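[Q] Does anyone have a clean C-alpha cell version of this?
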Amino acid sequence: MFITIFTDTIKFHYKSKNWQYHFDEIQELGLLKKKKKYFLENGAFIAVTIVAYYCMIFTDIVDLYYIIPTLLCYVFIIIARFDNPSEFAYFVFVKDIYRKEIRIKIASKDRLLIGKQIDRYLDLQFERNIKKTA
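[A] Here you go.
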C-alpha cells in the first residue's frame, strides 16, 4: 500500500519518498496528469530534416549518400518517440495548511491503486467534515 490511513494521520510511502500528515493539516490531496512533451525528439527531427535539405540543395552528394542516413535517423527518432507507450506523466500532489506543496512522480501502473486510496481518503475527510458540522 502506498497511502496508509490511520484514525488521525495519513502516511504516504512510494519508493524513497515518504511523508506523514495529520488529517487537519492537508488542504489538498490528489493526482495530477500532465501530457508528456517531446522536445528532444522534435528537435532531432527538425535537425535531421535541415541537414537533409542542405545536402539536397547545396551539395553535389549522390542521393544515396544522404537519403539512407536520413531515413535511418528518422527510424531512430521514431523508435525513441514511441518506445514508452504512456502518453502522460502522473504525480501525487499534496498541499498543506502551511502552504507547502509536494509533488511526487508515480509510475503509470500505480496510478489506479493510488487513485483509489486517495478517493478513500477524500471520502473519510468528507465524513469527518459532516460529523463536525452535524
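[Q] Thanks! Anything notable?
[A] The chain is about 45% helix and 30% strand.
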